[in-house]
Design brief:
Length: about 270
Amino acid sequence: MIILIDQVNASVKQVAYTRDAVERFLGRNGGKLALPISTAFFSDTGTAFAVKPSQDGNAIIADLNQQKIGLRVINRSKGVDGTEERWDLSQKTIKQIAEYELKRPGRKLLVWISPGWPMLSGPNIQFPSKQQQRLLDSVVSLSDELRQARIILYAIDPLGTDDAGGFQTEFYKLFVNGVKKPAEVRPGHLALQVLAIQSGGLVLNSNNDVAGEIAACERDAGAFYVITYNGRPGGVPSEYRTLAIKMDKPGLTARTRAGYYAQPENPAR
């Protein structure tokens, strides 16, 4: 499991609260962890992995205490939030993590603690057709990389009840269905919360117990099935196909990837 502390999309106060929650999670059971865990800091100067995967929570805490909380300085001249810059940097970072984990075997739980990056989507925002095609290409590429790297993404909002009923806690739901053509795509289809749901992970918000939410993500490593099948080639490039697993016992649900993009046998280049 990788616990990523987002310093780009959260304030210094929120990052400090997050670090405290992460330390409380790591210190449970005398620091004896159920599975190997690494921590990472995402800042506007890059992403740094604090430690290699370890099951010694106390050692990870000691390393965390050596890490300084960085001030977000991203393009202050372009507004307080630097929304476009934060969105772009967040996209590059999650893609880099997926590309890195693609080379490593096994299943990975990526716990991203953040309110989420800007969605840059709304009813009055229009995009040129070329930009929509580029967005769709990004959606397809990141979906493929997260799936092939066997990453299950979890989005934990450190704002807790302060963000309950807020814009980001509900707005992402408009984009969770797989996008099928360029005219439909919006930056919101690449939102942190959307990627989490589509990977088979969880979106956890409106709760002040961040340490408990991390523990809920950890429990997902305890029991899972691997189901594979050989899908047919796509009839057209990037043909979206929905995936669903139905349980035959009341009260049970199964979370899995929401879908994937199939390509023709000889896709046009």
